[in-house]
Amino acid sequence: MKKIAIIGATAGYGRELLNVLEENGVSADDIFAVDTDSPLGTQISYGEDVDMDVYNLRDFDFGSAQIAVFCVAEDLTKHYVPRALAKDALVIDCSGTYGAESDVPLIISGINDDKIKEATRGIIALPSPQVTQLMLPLQAVIKRYPIKRMVINTYMATSIYGKDAMDELFNQTRKIFMNEPIVDDETVFHKQVAFNVLPQVGEFIGDETKHEWLMNVEIKKILGTDIKVHANCAIVPVFIGIGAFVNVECDTEVDVDDIRNLMRDTKGVVVFDKHVDCGYVSMNDVQSESDVYVSRLRQDVSYVSRLRQDVSIENGFSFWSVADDLRAGIAQNAYNVLKLILKK
Predict the structure, then answer these.
(1) What is the pLDDT of residue 286?
(2) Mean pLDDT of 244-268
(3) Which CATH architecture has domain 4-128+331-343?
(4) Would the CATH topology of 4-128+331-343 be identical to that of 131-325?
């Protein structure tokens, strides 16, 4: 088997990818765990019985690995990817650094696997986790009901910013309960995130934030169409997960029961949609789950009166989607893409 280097192995996406690899029987002997500023002798657990050495990124020889999966921040990805390419390692970018570039394929396994052959630069990019969790339930739907417009509202956990952001939520919450000032714990969000909702994810790019811009670009690139996308992203005081309400407008008349069956038959998607109290899946329910969950699937209707319904858009439906952003959003897709590469 080809040797795989996981860059950023001790936290976030990298740590979760190691978990997925171990659960699927990949030998520790085929993996290099690599991280920034790891002192000599640092180890990380791989399953219950194995401790792996962690290599320092500054000194790592990319010539020892055939595939390098980058699960670190954009600045580190930009700095070290050229080193990996110079040693002929195939790069899988989980950071969002290269996904918008026209000559880098953006892959969601099961949707556009054939695009892997277009990795002429030696780089394959994975989309942001919120895009993966939205496109998976829609992959079969799109083939039957071509989509012309999507309006997406995402509610994103602090994990989207990494461990420091999750620690900031924890520290703020503790200090609020202890009636202590939180000013020293506003370094990531620059605001109170505990018991609050922040309508900004990433820096502003014009009127949009980075993750709103990314959703627009990535969805269009994956589908290869000029679909209209309007995204709104907010941070909620949750440690892990992403929830999204999605409103979809199609070119033709839609059958929601048919759409429900198409989603239910899609690998990696679970439809749990009961019209009773708690008959839906929430963000806390999906932590450590590899699947994307769909609830609240319904026709786009508005009630004009108690006796009459009308539609807000023609040929529309909406649904609620939740997933573990670390696992289902990135790590599971990275593992599936790795399998495709190894088969080829």
Answers:
(1) 96
(2) 96
(3) 3-Layer(aba) Sandwich (3.40)
(4) no
Would you state the torsion angle of the CA atoms of residues 85, 12, 290, 279, taken in this order, to the nearest 10 degrees? -140
- The confidence band for 314, taking pLDDT boundaries of 50, 70 and 90, is confident
With cut-offs at 50, 70 and 90, classify the pLDDT of residue 41: confident
User: Could you give the CA distance from residue 40 to residue 197 in angstroms, rounded to a whole number?
Assistant: 41
Q: Looking at residue 308, what is its pLDDT?
A: 64
Return the CATH number of the domain spanning residue range 131-325: 3.30.360.10
Whole-number mean pLDDT of the chain?
94
Model pLDDT, residue 221: 94
Smallest CA-to-CA distance from 231 within 240, 242, 239, 241 is with: 242
Is the predicted pLDDT of residue 233 greater than 70, yes or no? yes
| Residue 272 banded pLDDT, cuts 50, 70, 90 | very high
Helix (H) or strand (E) holding 68: strand 67-70
pTM: 0.92
- Closest C-alpha to 125, from 59, 61, 78: 78
Phi and psi at 168, nearest 5°, equal: -65, -40
**Among all chains, which residue has been given the structure tokens 């520290």?**
171
Q: Which of 47, 76, 45 is nearest to 60 (CA)?
A: 76
Strand 208-209 vs strand 4-7: parallel, antiparallel, or unpaired? unpaired
Task: Judge whether 55 and 33 are in contact, CB under 8 Å.
Answer: yes
In whole angstroms, what is the distance from residue 245 CA to residue 296 CA? 9
User: Could you state, in order of their start, the residue ranges of all structural domains in the chain?
Assistant: 4-128+331-343, 131-325
Instruction: Please say whether the beta carbons of 313 and 249 come within 8 A.
Output: yes
Scanning the chain, the segments in alpha helix (DSSP H) are: 12-23, 74-86, 129-144, 163-177, 210-223, 256-264, 332-343
